Amino acid sequence: MSKTIASGKRYRYFYGWNIVATGILSQFAHIAEINSIIGLFLKPMGQDVGFSRAAISGVQSMNRVTEGLLGPAVGRLLDRGWVKQLMIGGALLAGGGLILLSQVRALWQLYLLKGLIVGVGMAGFGRLVVNVTVNNWFVRKRGRALGIVGMGGSLGTILVVPLMAWVLTMIGWRWSWAVLGLFVWAIVLLPAALFMVRRPEDMGLQPDGMAAGEEKGQAQPSSLPHKDNPVTHKQAPSSVDGVSWTGRQALLTRTFWLLTLTIGMAHLATQALNLHLIPYLQDLGFAATIGATVVSVRGVFQLIGGPIWGFVAERIEPRYLASGMFLVFAVSIFVLMNASSLTTILAANILYGGAFSGTGILAEIMWANYYGRRSLGVIRGLGEPVTVIFSAAGPIVAGVIFDLTKSYDGAFLMIIGGAIISSVLVLFCTRPKQLTPRQQ
After folding, report:
1. Overall CATH class of domain 7-212+226-428
2. Could you tell me if 122 and 30 are in contact, meaning their C-beta atoms sit under 8 angstroms apart?
3. Which one, out of 88, 106, 342, 408, has a CA that is 20 to 30 A from the CA of 382?
4. What is the pLDDT averaged over residues 307-316?
5. Closest to 266 measured CA to CA, from 380, 386, 376, 375
6. What is the mean pLDDT of residues 59-83?
């Protein structure tokens, strides 16, 4: 289980993998918010209570805006060590809101519960919280750790989307919302309470399980907390990653705004497709269960692709990988909009799944590599409101285009354009230069 080195024991198992495991579960539960899940509810809710696709798309956009606008506050709380409180409180609120959605009978109720209450809750255990925490625990193995965490969302796509499609046919859309709420509570609450810690220094450890001073040839026990490594919640992050920016300094760099815009354009494209894919397939004559199966097949390739992107990004500049990834995404949408058979639709979604799996991973690696761990929560949070404007616009604009034209062709062209723009912009997202004293 362990081996003796120099001044003490260095354990083979690193506590950071507990953070990764909890992150997987959180991302798995966060699937309750994704557009592919909401897409299952578009037709039954529309037929039952008369909500249009644009209206339901709008509430999902409001949900994204709510989550994004909370980014700066969530990021600041993360840097202060509130990760456990955020995840528990967020899960309680989101799960409760989803359960109450089973009683919706008016559009304003849908917007209050799904757009506001669930949005606030999801911000507490969403990608910002999980990815910042994982980035704090890993430096040299950051890519693989983020890739493994991303598998949680992919597993949710594979398992939860088709399961919810079946549940909808069995018990209807109202009780299906309640099932999603209970699902969030069951998956998130206990692991978050038991395992989540802000960063390794809070437990007397170092990132990646490295010994203190390891790079200088020194050795200290460091992979697990013990009596010689007491928990000290006020410890600052070590400088093992060699870079440290404050939120204010990051805002003054060109890279911050370019990376934020790049991610925003990518989210505009992906969120629009994720919400409207199943309704699009239904319009082509396929059953909702077939649409859910297509999404699950895509999820399989997201599951495979995530760790691969993470491992490769530890060796190749992430921005080059991201540029190619966005181009593959654009090609997949072009194939999808011209597909006339289920085989072609599956091929397009396989391409999309492989590309989409790298979106969040590569961006998170760039954020952490460029700006360090010191104020990563604040920095990531500051970018969220800008990014979310694009993320929220995608689904609602696609819904409006469909309502006006009764076709998704215009929406698909918008998605392709967003992916191509992201492919170009990300190439300019280079490592920021240190500011001069006058600039600071």
Report:
1. mainly alpha
2. yes
3. 88
4. 92
5. 386
6. 89
